[in-house]
Amino acid sequence: MAYMEAAVVVYLRELFYPEGFHFPLKALPAKLAWIEIGREASTMAMLIAVGMAAGKSPWSRFSIFILVFGAWDIFYYLWLKILLGWPSSFLEWDILFLIPLPWTGPVIAPMIVAACMIYAALEVLYMEKKGLSFTIKKGETVFIALGAAAILASFLWDAGIVLNQGVPTKFQWKIFGSGELMGLLAFVQAARRNKARRS
Q1: Contact criterion met (CB below 8 Å) for 176 and 117
Q2: How far apart are the first and last CA of the chain?
């Protein structure tokens, strides 16, 4: 799936950025823009389908979904590096997603999110394999949701600039970092509490 995604990006860049990808983004014809949005939605549907088919409980289904999502994202950039020699560094900016608005940021940012998703998924799946159902408290859910919202805000921060064919210049690392820390600490607390309950 990661190779497939990377292959489509290779074709798009060959057509619209033959000299190499860079901001500002070139305007796609409306038809192609909608096709690209549909492709992204279809990719998400495939990832969700994997979780639904492989999981046995709501938590295991969600965990498998975020596990394959994280792995897909990391291997997507690995394939771009193999096929295009891009990115030249983890700090190079990329267009990350288009739904509902353009997400942008340095390549390392979505890879950090992907690594955390993989970690969280493996923790939950390990606990379920040991016969322990994963539970989460209201406060933990709130902090994880706030963390996710902060991360999303950091990716969407320059959406207006990008839509107006501008060049994003400064990633909101403080917002991104606080969101990552908030969500990760809340999850770790939930995981420890669940493991202590088993003990």
Answers
A1: no
A2: 39
Alpha-helical regions (H) of 55-129: 58-84, 108-129
191: containing domain: 2-198
pTM higher than 0.85: yes
Q: Which residues of 180-195 are buried (b: 16+ CB within 10 A; e: fewer)?
A: bebbbebbebbbeebe
How many alpha carbons fall within 13 Å on the CB side of residue 199?
6
Q: How many structural domains does the chain have? A: 1
pLDDT digit of tens for each residue in the chain (199 aa)? 899 999 999 999 999 999 889 899 888 888 988 999 999 999 999 999 999 999 888 999 999 999 999 999 999 999 999 999 999 999 999 999 999 899 999 999 999 999 999 999 999 999 888 888 888 999 999 999 999 999 999 999 999 999 998 999 899 999 999 999 999 999 999 999 888 876 5
CA contacts within 13 A on the Cβ side of 102 = 23
In degrees, rounded to 5, the angle at the alpha carbon of residue 52 between the alpha carbons of residues 46 and 55 is 130
